[in-house]
Amino acid sequence: MKKNSFIKVFLFVLTMLLLFVQMIQRQTKLFTFKPLNGVFVPAPEPHLTLETYRTGQFQAQFEPFLKENFGFREPLIRFYNQFLYDFFRTSTNDNIIVGKDKWLYFIQHVNDYYGTEMYRWYDSNEEAREAYDREAQLMWKLRGVLKEYDVDFLVFMAPQKGFLYPEHLPDREFDTTSINAREYYSAKFDEYGFPYIEMTKWFKELKEADTLPYSLFPQTGAHWCFSAAFATDSLIRFMADLKGVELPKLQFGALHPSTEEILENDYDIENLANLMRPIRHDYDRLYDAPVTFLTDSTTVQPSAIFVGTSFLMRMYDFVPLSEIFPGSQYWYYNSTVYYGKGYKRMTMVGELDILQTLLESGYVVWFAEGDQMCKMSFGFAEQALMALCVSDDRVAEVRQHLIDSLGRDEATMAKLRDDPQLTLGGLAYEMVVKHPERYFPEIAGDSVPTARNPRIPEVLAIRDIKQDTAWMKNLQCQTVIRNTTLEQVLKMEAQNILNDRPLMRDEPNVFSRQTYVESLVKAMEDEIRNNNPELMENIREKAKANGISVEEQLHADAAWIINYQIEQGEIVL
Question: I need a labelling partner for 440 at 20 to 30 A (CA). Which of 34, 101, 173, 373 fits?
């Protein structure tokens, strides 16, 4: 009994000591650990009041907050993940599948190979076929409309890891009755004569030939590695043939082992597994090379919009796409827009003038890997067709009608009360984008729409103006003379063209480059001062540290921003 009592006391004291140590770590962060990888939505910190305790709000918030903020959280989670991987070859991340020979896949890679990915999105073959048929037809319609304005729309299907390396997949039963999205779209595009590249078949041939000195996919990664540069070369050649023009040609330097920075991206699934130690990569041949591009007097460099998944991120890890296609944009899942040199600047699709952006591009490329094609174009084809074929006022009118209707629906209002992130406007727009042909008959039918947004003539006039450097310089000076934005001046000049009025371009240019830049800096100062309180607070702190006035620091920061935009080509002087 004495021995048992001693053990109980010892365990109790040890438990209390461990709790005390972890509390000290949680409060002081005495030890720092490598952060866990992945996207986390922080749990709100609970506030104990009589009201939050009485309603149970404090108790409901305290548990998830404690789970995210206990001491030694990172190493303990990594230890547990490593234990599951070593002994059970599994992961706490439901999206990660551990295959044979220490290969890692995302769940969609495995599902798509075995024929079950379709069921994550559709209840039956009939439902999937109807959705794919509709989307393929919308893309064909969109290409027809864009082609009228010399904009080429094409599809790029990235290769699929599961189909390239099935020998390392876990064993499962095949579902031979489902529809494979990649194969189905390929057949539909062939039927429509729609231009597309399907990379899985070609990459399988490359793998079987085993002629490349580098791997096509990394052992523990979801995306292609340096093979992305090889595929980008094919895409650029395909785009050139489509328009019958000379685009820049890629030039590949000498291969060398991939750097740590590149490998960090290569092993993206492994990073998300949050293990304690690296997995041995017995199957990887990971190399890369410097990639530049060549131009000559016959080369053209049009702008482009790339709409799609994270596979493009790996493409511009190796290839300077933003320089090959100046002014190009990357619409990540048709949501976040990356632009500027290296795609380092960011905005949202909803903040763009979609009609103007589409018509100022030489190419629009929609790309996705096969398993992602179950989700179709993420609403892009629908949004683009509405922008091109329906007036802005009519879209707003239909949306407002839906908002009014939803506002009278008790079930919808209950849903909004339960989820504060939902809005009536957002729900209404989602309904319109999901099936625009239900609300706008001009988009429906089996033919390319003939209706057009009445703003198109103005947009085309602005497009022509922007292609004339001297004209643009003159209009930039007009923004100072008229104390307005370049956007407004461009619209005014476009209306001058359309209504056969005298052009601002022909007015005397009384402002120098320096005067124009100074006006931009002043406008940026006003923007920061009036609309960016966080940056203003940062400027106050820097001014204090530098021993200068806040206005002096504000001017310096505004000048830096404008100079950066000039260097990135966002402001043309």
Answer: 373
Question: Shortest CA distance to 348 belongs to which of 383, 319, 313, 397?
Answer: 383
The DSSP code for 299 is: B
Residue carrying the six token digits 């304690």: 276
For residue 124 the two structure tokens come to 């039956």
What does the DSSP assignment read for 188-257? HHHHHT--EEEHHHHHHHHHHHT--SS-SS-TT-SS--THHHHHHHHHHHHHHHHHT-B--EEEE---EE
Cα 11 to the chain's mean position, in Å?
Answer: 51
Dump pLDDT digits (tens) for 42-92.
Answer: 667 777 777 776 777 767 776 666 666 666 778 888 999 999 999 999 999
DSSP helix/strand/coil, 462 = helix
Phi-psi group of 569: left, alpha or beta (phi > 0 → left; psi -120 to 50 → alpha; rest → beta): left
Contact 368, 157 (CB under 8 A): yes
Judged against a pLDDT cut of 70, whether residue 39 lies above it is answered with: no
CA torsion, ordered 349, 351, 356, 359, to nearest 10 deg = -10
Decide: helix, strand or coil at residue 295. Answer: coil
CA distance 139 to 192: 10
Exposure class string for 341-376: b at 16+ Cβ within 10 A, else e = eebeeeeebeebebbbbbbbbbbbbbbbbbbbbbbb
Following DSSP, what letter does each residue of 11-55 receive, concatenated? HHHHHHHHHHHHHHHHHH--S--PPPPS---PPPPP---HHHHHH
In sequence order, what are the residues at sequence separation of 6 or more whose Cβ sits closer than 8 angstroms to the Cβ of residue 131? 122, 376
DSSP codes, 404-437: HHHHT-HHHHHHHHH-TT--HHHHHHHHHHH-HH
SS3 label, residue 73? helix
* 288 φ/ψ angles, rounded to the nearest 5 degrees: -150, 175
Residues 462-492: pLDDT tens digits?
999 999 988 988 888 888 778 888 899 999 9
d(CA 245, CA 114): 41
Q: Could you give the CA distance from residue 455 to residue 453 in angstroms, rounded to a whole number?
A: 5
Q: What is residue 322's three-state secondary structure?
A: helix
Nearest to 293 by CA among 327, 318, 311: 318
**Structure tokens, 15:** 């438990």
If one counts every other C-beta atom within 10 angstroms of the C-beta of residue 293, the result is 18
Residues constituting the chain: 573
Cα 339 from Cα 331, distance rounded (Å): 9
